[in-house]
Design brief:
Distance between the termini: 13 Å
Largest sheet: 5 strands, parallel
Strand order of the largest sheet: 4-3-2-1-5
Helix content: 25-40%
Number of domains: 1
CATH topology: Hypothetical Protein Ychn, Chain: A
Number of strands: 5
Strand content: 15-25%
Shape: globular
Radius of gyration: 12 Å
CATH architecture: 3-Layer(aba) Sandwich
CATH superfamily: DsrEFH-like
Order of helices and strands: EHEHEHEHE
Structural class: alpha/beta
Number of helices: 4
Length: 95
């Protein structure tokens, strides 16, 4: 399943999201959701424990001036890879 986090993790139900994530899932952070990918954030350890694949949208981290603050645990992707992820997963959950 593809999980897309579009809202700030501080305004989202992260406990529920973290409970839903499975090893085979992909999580894409975009819009204000890119805050989840900032270095040393309070949600990172639990995200890594989920073993889900973690992605963050390049254009949104650039728009927020966060380029040098993103953890290496997230793969920075562009819109082409975003489209690939949506085609890869028949199911998607928006957060």
């Amino acid at each position: 399943m593809l999980h897309t986090l579009i809202n700030s993790p501080f305004k989202s139900n992260m406990v529920l999201l973290l409970n839903f994530l499975k090893k085979s899932d992909d999580l894409l952070a975009l819009q204000d959701g890119v805050l989840i990918a900032v270095n040393n954030n309070c949600f990172l350890r639990k995200l890594l424990d989920s073993s889900a694949n973690l992605y963050v949208l390049k254009e949104d981290i650039e728009a927020r001036g966060l380029c040098n603050k993103i953890t290496t645990e997230f793969v920075v992707i562009d819109y082409q890879k975003f489209v690939f992820l949506t085609e890869k997963h028949k199911q998607q959950m928006n957060w």
